[in-house]
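W.,

You were right to be curious about this one. When I first looked at the sequence I had no strong expectations either way, so I just let the prediction run and decided to look at it fresh. Below is the sequence, 84 residues in total, followed by the output.
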Amino acid sequence: MAQISLYVEDSMASQLTASAKISNCSVSKYVAALISKHLSENELEESRKKRILEQLCGALDDPSFEIPPELPWEKEIPRRFDLI
C-alpha cells in the first residue's frame, strides 16, 4: 500500500483527528475514505455527463445539417509546439 504525507493547518489536523475518532477509525483511514468518496463522486459525474452527451447525439433533426469534412493539414492554423 502506498504512503502519502499530507501537510495541513493545525486546525484542520484537529478537525480530522476529531472526525476520525467519531468515525471510530484512524486519521489515515478517515482521509482515505474521504478521498475514495470524492473520486467515486467525480467518476459518477463524468459518467453522467457522458450519458447525457450520448443521448444528445443525433438529437438535431435538421436535414440541412451535415457533419463537415475533415480539414486538410494545409488549411489548418499553424501551430507552435515549442511553446508547450
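Here's what jumped out at me. The chain has a mean pLDDT of 86. And, maybe more interesting for your project: Residues 18-55 form one domain.

Coffee later to discuss?

I.
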